[in-house]
Amino acid sequence: MAAALNDTPVRVTCDACCGGLARWLRLLGIDTTYEAGIDDGVLVRQALDERRVVVSCDSRLFERRLFTTGKLRGILLPVGLDIAAQLDRVVPVLAVTPAFPRCTRCNGRLESVGRSEVADVVPARTLAWIDEYYRCGACGHVFWEGTHWRRIHAVRARLGGQTR
Ligand SMILES: [Zn+2]
C-alpha cells in the first residue's frame, strides 16, 4: 500500500515504558502504536505484522531471536531520560522528517474541520480566538492549536520538520 504524501513510511510501536514518547512521536506525524500493559509476545507479533520499529527500555526484550536475527528493528531507550532526550535518541535513528501530527490519543489521522463543526465541543472562550481545528478520524477527539502548541512547534522545528 502506498503511503500518502504526508505520511512518514516508518512505523513505530512503543513499549509500556514509553507512553509519553508515543504521544510525541504522534505529534511528529509518526504512526505510533502504544498500549499500556501489553504483553511482550503480543507487542512483538504486532510489530512484525505491521513492520514497526520497537522502542523499549527493556534490554531483555531485544534478546529475542526476532531482534538478534534482524527480522525486527529495535531501539533501546536508556531508563531515566526525559522526553526531549528520548526524542533526540529515537528520531535520528528512525531518520524521519516530522509530518502532519496524528491523534495523540489513538494514533488516528487528523482532518481539518471548521469552527462551526466543533462549536458544541470546544469551550466558547477558545472558539473566540482559535480559527483552525482538527478532528481525529478514528476517535473523534477535537484538537486545536492552543498555548501548548508553541512547545510542540519548537520541538518539531528542532527535529528538522515543518512547523505546521
Ligand atoms: Zn484519535
Structure overview:
The protein has about 160 residues and is α/β, with parallel strands linked by helices. It folds into two domains: about 10-95; about 110-160, no CATH class. It is built from seven helices and seven strands. The protein has helices spanning about 20-25, 40-50, 65-70, 85-95, 115-120, 125, 150-160, and strands spanning about 10-15, 30-35, 50-55, 75, 110-115, 135, 140-145. Strands 2-1-3-4 form a four-stranded parallel sheet, with helices on both faces. A three-stranded antiparallel sheet has the order 5-6-7. A hairpin with a 5-residue loop joins strand 6 (about 135) and strand 7 (about 140-145). Helix 1 (about 20-25) crosses helix 4. It is elongated, with a radius of gyration of 17 Å. Zinc ion binds near residues 105, 106 and 136.
Features:
single chain, 164 residues, alpha/beta, 2 domains, 4-stranded parallel sheet, 3-stranded antiparallel sheet, 32% helix, elongated, binds zinc ion
Write the layout of secondary structure elements.
Blueprint: E1 11-14, H1 19-27, E2 31-34, H2 40-49, E3 52-56, H3 65-68, E4 74-76, H4 83-94, E5 110-113, H5 115-118, H6 124-127, E6 133-136, E7 142-144, H7 149-158
Parallel strand pairs: 1-2, 1-3, 3-4
Antiparallel strand pairs: 5-6, 6-7
Helix pairs in contact: 1-4
Bound molecules: zinc ion.
